[in-house]
Design brief:
By secondary structure, the chain is an all-alpha fold. 63% of the residues lie in helices and 0% in strands. Helix 1 packs antiparallel against helix 3.
Length: 424
């Protein structure tokens, strides 16, 4: 059986998955919409009902990014890469933006005369805060950075796992893909073993728990690179996701949401990747969506902080806006955050990646290449599309492995209720 993996000697377009970059923006919008709801920006009943209908499950955007992170990092991994080079690239991607926002948030907090916990601030700076269940720590400073703390743990583990992953039987990889939704579902009764005050942290934040979603993406990517993945095409996978999203919010009990969505997400991710590799049509690789996906990491880092700060300055935090003012304010926040995200991406993220990340050696196009399952192939078709689309490399520009999302507005929920909301 032929393999779909990008290897030396194959078309480099095989490691570029612009559809996944475009999908990042869809997931980022789900998170943004969720925060618009939890911050009570829109309070007019008819408008609020629309926001609730569309974004009740918006926290699952984080789940999407954790699954996507595992998939992209395994798909783009190169055999000649070293652990230190891998870790350096990952830090070069996430840490400059994080460091800048950490400083900005603290400075603005001092201007508001907010109290500062030095220990929590240092843990946040080092991105280890997600390991601390103490209230005020895992959501410290720039609250959304808890997910980067989880990602840092994933990044540390992956190079140690990859050699064994390449030797793992495909049946075992399928078992991982199938088991992860069941493990997520088991967290519902399992959280009762944790002290009540730590249940939200355990189900939503704890890196070991959240890594299950990452490993689901890892297993799926390895199956796909071997040519052993079996799943629907992109149109059917997208339909399954939309139906799952619509049905879950209306008729499915909340404790089943995250398990269902993890299955829907892996279908969309794998089908979009396969569409890119085989040159099949995909609406997610359009130039505007790819650009939005590129800035979505910066968008994630700024959006909650910007909205909270402006609402505090105007005295509208937790008050909300009536009539058409609410939707207009939400759109204004979206555009402002996009502008700031572009500036952060353009002037911090991109230049720091060029400066700090080790360059990858390009292998001559004519060199031989094989994989464990045979020569790389794409069913006779190379990935196609406009030159700009083919030039988007998720490893360097698409940031498909950095997850937006947080539980802003939800940190006061604990216990059983927290378990039901485990979609972020």
């Amino acid at each position: 059986m032929t393999s779909l993996t990008p290897t030396p000697g194959t078309d480099r377009s095989l490691s570029r998955l612009p559809s996944l970059t475009g999908l990042r923006w869809i997931a980022a919008m789900l998170v943004f919409g969720f925060h618009v709801g939890t911050m009570r920006i829109i309070v007019e009943p008819e408008f609020k009902a629309v926001v609730d209908q569309l974004f009740t499950l918006g926290l699952s955007g984080v789940q999407f990014f954790f699954v996507l992170s595992g998939f992209v990092l395994v798909w783009s991994a190169r055999e000649q890469d070293t652990k230190w080079a891998f870790w350096r690239r990952r830090l070069a991607k996430i840490y400059p933006n994080h460091l800048l926002m950490w400083a900005v948030v603290l400075l603005v907090g001092l201007w508001f005369a907010d109290p500062v916990n030095p220990s929590a601030a240092v843990q946040n700076l080092l991105l280890v805060q997600a390991w601390n269940p103490t209230p005020g720590y895992f959501y410290s400073v720039n609250t959304v950075s808890w997910s980067l703390s989880c990602e840092l743990f994933f990044y540390f583990c992956l190079p140690f796992v990859l050699p064994a992953l390449r030797r793992t039987p495909s049946a075992a990889l399928w078992a991982v893909v199938v088991a992860v939704p069941l493990v997520i579902l088991a967290l519902w009764p399992g959280q009762l073993l944790v002290p009540e005050e730590s249940r939200w942290w355990f189900t939503q934040i704890f890196p070991l728990v959240r890594s299950t979603e990452f490993w689901m993406g890892v297993a799926a990517a390895e199956l796909m690179r071997r040519g052993h993945w079996r799943g629907p095409g992109l149109p059917l996978a997208s339909l399954i996701f939309v139906v799952t999203w619509a049905v879950a919010g209306e008729w499915i009990r909340a404790e089943f949401w995250a398990a269902l969505l993890s299955a829907a997400y892996i279908l969309v991710i794998t089908s979009a990747a396969r569409a890119d590799v085989r040159g099949l049509p995909s609406p997610w690789r359009s130039r505007p969506l790819v650009w939005l996906g590129e800035v979505s990491f910066a968008f994630y880092l700024v959006h909650v902080f910007v909205m909270v700060t402006i609402l505090r300055l105007t005295g509208d935090h937790g008050v909300g806006f009536t009539g058409w003012t609410g939707p207009l304010v939400a759109v204004g926040f979206l555009l402002l955050n996009l502008l700031l995200a572009w500036l952060l991406y353009r002037w911090v993220e991109t230049p720091m990646m060029r400066l700090l990340a080790p360059s990858r050696k390009r292998v001559p196009a004519g060199s031989p290449a094989t994989t464990a399952d045979g020569p790389a192939a794409t069913g006779g078709r190379a990935a196609t599309g406009p030159p700009r689309q083919r030039a988007v490399d998720v490893d360097r520009a698409g940031h498909a492995d950095v997850p937006p999302g947080d539980q802003a507005g939800e940190s006061d929920r604990t216990g059983i209720d927290a378990g039901t909301r485990r979609s972020g």
